[in-house]
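=== RUN LOG ===
request id: a7f3
mode: sequence -> structure
chains: 1
length: 194
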Amino acid sequence: MGLPQLKRTDAVLIVDVQNDFCPGGALPVAEGDHVVPVLNRWIEAAQQVGAWIIASRDWHPSNHLSFREHGGTWPPHCVQNTRGAKFHPALKLPENVLIVSKGTDADRDDYSDFEMTGLARELRSNCIRRLWVGGLAQDVCVHATVLDGLKAGFEVHLIKDATRPLNATPGAGELAVQEMQAAGCIIEEGGEHA
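=== RESULT ===
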């Protein structure tokens, strides 16, 4: 399988590929672990040219407002320093990966990697122009991250094969993809080449 041709001014942005969002986790995405081998190929391609590799994670305190027992929508997930919050063990993140933690404030629910993280400023200060986004979930945090990346002025590509939707309703993921595309995201259908 071919690898994408990335540039040093590119960043591969891996959204929330954590144990709790994969099968067996607290808030599992169907086939969530299937994104890992695709993302590993993109990580390898990024390493070959010195492109940035960024991995975001939900990093919630145990009393986070998004949890049902605190009036939120979701079961407790990705609680700081738990197994569920760790990245999927087969994801081959390099030692120099930039880790972005979000949802760290118990009183704020952040879905986008750009909310309260300083990520846009960090990317601009390092002359990053294009983002290649994959991860979990396609219709929640990936969706929010892509839209915010576009609003921040980046050229954003969705690695479609490297995402899966949380909503199992037929067509829910495709609707999210259409919304991202309508906002200006470039959809990489094959996930194999840039």
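=== NOTES ===
The domain at 10-188 is CATH 3.40.50.850 (Rossmann fold).
The chain has a mean pLDDT of 94.
=== END ===
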